[in-house]
């Protein structure tokens, strides 16, 4: 009986010691198969010449942006681009390891390109997804926070 009590205490201690920076859980069936709509994007631009950083809000491109995780490997991205006559649709694969979400091929509205892309998942719940992305242009370092909901 004493051994059982110590085992239960040890298990509770281990559960209570989870670090805040531990990886988020991988997407589960309850988080898959529904569309996530981009709500906002906050961007910080820091010039590499040492000038002060600028923080601003970026509007979604020409209408709603929907990101759908079809299953644990495939996603779709649907949006309206300013230069396209109709909706823009991508189907590709992704992987989710630790806190990194890597898209094999995705349109980045932050850089305006279709390419592989890795973002950090900062928050993941049943109704909210927050992605962090960092990139550089020749003269500026960018940090973007993209918030999705459903």
Automatic annotation (TrEMBL):
Q: Which organism is it from?
A: Hymenobacter polaris
**Superkingdom, taxonomy of origin:** Bacteria
What protein name is recorded for this chain?
Lipocalin-like domain-containing protein
